[in-house]
Design a protein that fits this description.
mainly alpha, two-stranded antiparallel sheet, 6 helices
Length: 184
């Protein structure tokens, strides 16, 4: 049947139905456009997050490498050998007097010096603020922060496994300070 032979009401009904379908199609297109824009923004944000993450990882890796190189240099600086000590002090007596150690041979002097170069204590200059510091001596149930020169920290066993000496603790805390200060 052709459109000419249809009654007017049927033609109007088909026209309304066609308009409704076009409206629905237009709304779907608009919703699709909104979803595409939202997806684009989400992907852009994800790319920015990934870029920031990569930058942060690179900064952390650089800091760790720098710390490892510095630590390696420190250990190399303070490793004594018999040959170096003999060249520097000529006699065992001079070396013993210089280091104020009682030893009977060059070998025992080297062993003592190298052993003590790895032993560290947590020494602080007089702190500028009392934030976060505690002294092991308590007065009247309160911490006394006056003239702190040496701070003793007790580590829980699980932490002590990861940080076997005070140098490791200090390096980890310095690293944490640098990371947090860079991210502020």
């Amino acid at each position: 049947m052709s459109n000419k032979s249809l009654p007017t009401t049927q033609k109007q009904g088909k026209a309304r139905l066609g308009d409704q379908i076009r409206n629905i199609a237009d709304r779907l297109k608009q919703e699709t456009d909104v979803q595409i824009q939202a997806t684009s923004r989400i992907l852009g944000a994800a790319a920015q997050i990934a870029e920031n993450h990569d930058r942060l990882i690179n900064e952390v890796v650089d800091m760790v490498e720098s710390d490892l190189n510095a630590e390696k240099n420190v250990y190399q600086k303070y490793t004594y050998t018999i040959d170096i000590l003999k060249q520097q002090f000529k006699t065992l007596r001079n070396a013993k007097a210089h280091f104020n150690l009682k030893v009977s041979s060059w070998e025992s002097l080297v062993n003592k010096l190298n052993a003590t170069s790895y032993q560290t204590t947590i020494i602080q200059n007089k702190p500028q603020s009392n934030q976060g510091l505690a002294e092991t001596n308590m007065i009247n149930g309160e911490y006394n922060f006056n003239n702190i020169e040496k701070l003793t920290v007790f580590l829980e066993p699980d932490v002590a496994e990861m940080f076997p000496n005070s140098e490791a603790v200090n390096e980890a805390l310095r690293f944490l300070i640098r990371v947090t200060s860079k991210n502020r």
